[in-house]
Amino acid sequence: MTFVWRRTFPDTHHDFVAEEAGQHVGRIKRIDGGPQNSSWTWTCTGCQRGHEATGVRPLNGEAATRDEAIEALAAAWDRAKAWSARTGRPLA
């Protein structure tokens, strides 16, 4: 799977959104400060059906590294697409 990545806002660092085939997939962002300092959050925002789309697996979370956040987002997106194909319901 190949996402197209761009900065969420032009002047941000460590804050990115992902698209696949023109569809918004999700976002990753590094946390700067607090107990989770330097960890990354991820969210699969292209799918708004909550746990219904993935069973008990989350559509957002936290990861220690940027690469782990990308992998978690990709896995959530794959689950959401499979759910959509199985149910015939749209992702967003």
Can you tell me about this structure?
The chain is of the alpha+beta class and 92 residues long. It has one domain. It has one helix spanning 66-87, and strands at 4-7, 15-20, 23-30, 40-43, 60-63. A 5-stranded antiparallel β-sheet has the order 1-2-3-4-5, covered by helices on one side. Strand 2 (15-20) and strand 3 form a beta hairpin. The protein is globular and about 40 Å long. The two termini are 19 Å apart. The model has no long low-confidence stretch (mean pLDDT 84).
Features:
single chain, 92 residues, alpha+beta, 1 helix, 5 strands, globular
User: What's the number of structural domains?
Assistant: 1
Counting H and I runs of at least 4 residues, what is the number of helices? 1
**How would a crystallographer describe the biggest sheet?**
5 strands, antiparallel
Helix content: 10-25%
Q: Ranges with pLDDT <50 over ≥5 residues? A: none
Work out the strand percent.
25-35%
Structural class: alpha+beta
The shape, in one word, is globular
Order of helices and strands: EEEEEH
- By DSSP, the count of extended strands is 5
Rg (C-alpha, Å): 13 Å
Q: Provide mean pLDDT, rounded.
A: 84
The strand order across the widest sheet is 1-2-3-4-5
Alpha-carbon distance between the two ends: 19 Å
